[in-house]
Amino acid sequence: MEPTKYIWMDGTFVPWAKATVHVLVHGLHYGSAVFEGVRCYETPKGPAVFRLKEHTDRLLYSAKAIDMTSPFSRDELMEATKELIRRNKIKECYIRPILFYGYGKMGLRPGGAPVQSTIACWPWGSYLGHEAVRVKTSKHIRLHPRSVVPDAKVSGHYVNSIMASLEVVGDDRYDESLFLDFEGNIAEGPGENIFFVRDGKLITPPHGMILPGITRDSVVSLAKDRGLTVTEKTVKPEDLASMDECFFTGTAAEVTAVVSIDGKKIGNGKIGPVTTTLKKAYLDAVHGKDPKHQAWCAYVG
Ligand code: PPE
Question: Which pTM value belongs to this model?
């Protein structure tokens, strides 16, 4: 991780190395924190944070899932994000806001622990490391929707994603893992949503078991703008043989082609035309080059 100059912490900007906490913060012990992953891109009008409002809204929605009240409003968090980028004088970066239960209370009822908030940013290039990835179905299932609030981005949930990710570490046949849900349907990657293309039409697993990604939502709009049909429906592993293309979406992963699952090729095993079109559409939109979606770009100024 390449440090930047400042981190926003509880309302003030502190030098990167000074943004520290006590080892007894509640969030460290129990995962009682909520976070976002956001990206800022260079555009013809200067740096712009992609869908900052939607990410900030999701952060505050996630906080509610663990009965946390943010000390800062949506507008304050959005302004802090933009000011952080201005102060760090960075054109493109990954942004990581987090709200966590802090120091002063142990035990499983977090009420009484102070809520702390930080926003950091740093350069983060290719997340999956390849233009096209080979995926392995995890032996772990996506968290049961009744065990957690599945559409909240709670830090503790991510142990599930870590378990799945560790399965492909050191295995040079695979680049990323994939979760099935408790009913055996394809759910999502450990940090990405998934789409399939069959006969020129897009299919993606529905809300309910997944984190409903903001990239997923953007790609659905961009596909519809191009006259493509998008259906949200369950996909079973046995349906994979009939799919022509597959790709992951996510803030970190952007649009990344999936060319095989469990060693079996998807379509001809190459990056497909619909994936290529939507990847370009997404990269144009984040770089402020899609006139229809200017509202997605929060210009830092
Ligand atoms: N599912 C999961 C489980 C997930 O973590 C992400 C984001 C998505 C789907 C896609 O959501 P969105 O970014 O709104 O399109 N994963 C974040 C964390 C990655 C990390 O390793 O940290 C991200 O992409 O920033």
Answer: 0.98
